[in-house]
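Objective 1b. Sequence-to-structure analysis of Diguanylate cyclase.
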Amino acid sequence: YAAKHSRQSLVIFDQALHDGVEAEFELFSALKKALNANQLSVFYQPLVCGHNNEVHGMEALLRWRDASGTFISPMTFIPIAEKNNYIKQISAFVIEQVFAQLDDFLAIEPGVTVHINLSSQDFQGRYLINQLVELQTKYDVQPSRIVFELTESMVMLDVEQAKYMIGVLIDMGFAVSIDDFGTGFSSFSMLRELPISQIKIDRSFISACLDSDKDQAIVETTIYLANRLGCSVVAEGVEDSKTAAYLNAKGCHYLQGYYISEALERDSAKHWLHSHRMVKKVLKR
Ligand code: C2E
Ligand code: MG
Ligand code: MG
Ligand code: MG
């Protein structure tokens, strides 16, 4: 019985693995088609100053709406693009969209920065740098308006290469922000060795911080650390006014999350920037 049983489960396991690989392959083919069929678009989520409500930036977040109109999350397709060596194409698309969009945002809000998420593969080879040089010329982009968001895990993969690439980005005039701060491992040495401009405290520390002493200890220490290092600090995933008030009281510079706004399609993002500015003007009077 045991032999038969184990053989059976082996067959079942194989089948599941096979289905998984097949599904992934199909999703990857669909992703390639989607990029060519204009089914991918860049949405923008605002980051605001918690103290004066001034807009700090707009984070570019990729959206894939398939032919049936359903959204496929970047948490699903970015890892598949990474596995299949397709990040290069994805990043080229996002960077070009953002560079083409930037002037529009700047016309409404001259102080705004646009944040772009990178993947570990973007640090392999020179294509990212080549792309940036080319697109910067094509769209006449001021590099100080662009912030690249990197995660600690991206850097862990090849620390020396990552340090080199971050150095090149900073030399080119771009700003660098550490995304999902606190969930990786290399943060302190990165902060020590590189002129990082910003730390984004991961949502997992923010979402339940009002009920957790440990989360508060981590959040408050990170805010202190950022201040000591001369970095700005952002809280991601702020969903309610109480959390926003707590973060403001603790001196967190910027807030991002559904409490302020979700990620918005390009025209809605422009509209949001515009009305945010109008509301501020009215309140000032
Ligand atoms: P991330 O860069 O940490 O982005 C934050 C994610 O949290 C976004 O999910 C955003 O929509 C979501 N979020 C923002 N505020 C809240 C909130 O208050 N509550 C909750 N529950 N969620 C909130 P999204 O857009 O699904 O992106 C997920 C991840 O996919 C991003 O995490 C980023 O790592 C990656 N990603 C997205 N766009 C790109 C891209 O263009 N390139 C690359 N390489 N990665 C991307
Ligand atoms: Mg990000
Ligand atoms: Mg993040
Ligand atoms: Mg995150």
